[in-house]
Amino acid sequence: MEKLNPKKTMWLSLIPGLGQLKNGQKAKGIIFLGIFALFIIEMAVFGFNALVGLVTLGTVAGRDHSMFLMVRGTLQFLVTIIFLMFYIVNVRDARKTAEAINRGKDVPKTWKEMCDSLATDGFPYLLTFPAYILMIFTIILPVFVTLLMAFTNYDFNHIPPASLISWIGIQNFHDMFMLSSYRATFGAVFGWTVIWTLCASTLQIVIGIFTAVVAHQDFIKGKKIFGIIFLLPWAVPAFVTIMSFSNIFNDSAGAINIQVIPFLNHFLPVHIPQISWMTDPFWTKVALIMIQGWLGFPYIYVLVTGILQSISEDLYEAATIDGATPVQKFNHITLPAILAVAAPTFVTQYTFNFNNFSIIYLFNNGGPGDVGGGAGNSDILISWIYKLTTGTTPQYGLASAITLIISAIVIAVSLFVFKKSHAFDMD
What is the pTM of this model? Predict the structure, then answer.
């Protein structure tokens, strides 16, 4: 049998499909050549104009819609990237297949052999391919559009189709950090976002671990009843709970000020005054942290309960023989076992609360008062973004820039913690 020249086959595959045809793989060659032809036709009919529209974002106001052009152009850009990946795979496939044939290895050549190969070796790829296609439209496309929007002047003065959007580079990031008004607002909102994330997430994790450990002790009776009670905050829809707490913490008619505090004053030596939960920024933030602790601990409780049941009792018996105290048992046996399994999940609690929009919005709409730039005293970054895009003077470009900063922070912190906790090394 005549030996194939892998380099010649690779050069032939610069036109997708020709290299495969040279290797005798007629079915694969026809498919690859068909994909190439479809891409060329798509570029001629739609793709080239879509990419031009992405660059210009329109030339005539009232006729061209800059956002539509951006979305179409971004989609075409992704399609082009996918084709380039296919192109590289096509070239490598032609060379690798030629080398395999020269070594005497059988490769699928007919339609039947190719279908049989896909049904066996390629089945996982066929199964996951639709998910990847769906991910392009539901995740990657919106992320790319948001990324691009951060570098435009998309605001209340430039709303298509009445006005065109233009590329302005890093101006939105410059304004955020250099303009005194936005810089002060970003600093205040970001600072509270960090405090909120650390305090609220830590509180719910501590409560969840504490309740799980206590309920796991042998001397506790009625564990099933406690389990049901601890799960109640999780069973009730979060928005219902938040709205209820908004009424409970009402300054003038809420149960905390009208019933709970007067009741406590009957027994405490120190008089507790009524607290301005909804009108004082400090107490609003305290209330938000306490509410999130209540809402979030059931999930941690369930998680930790499962982990505790997997810890061998022999470890505790050996520790008892050695004279270990309950605190020492917790520090050296229980807590390490919990963190070894649940550390990545705990990280997700912090990242979730960093972007926990619902509780901030539903409890007090980010109030009371404001810190400038359209942000309230209890707004976190994600709720500030909402106000920037839904207010009377929307700032879509600036909101997109803040979104990118949030994403960068969350991704960086998550990757760092996952690496330190060896989450990626777990089997």
Answer: 0.83
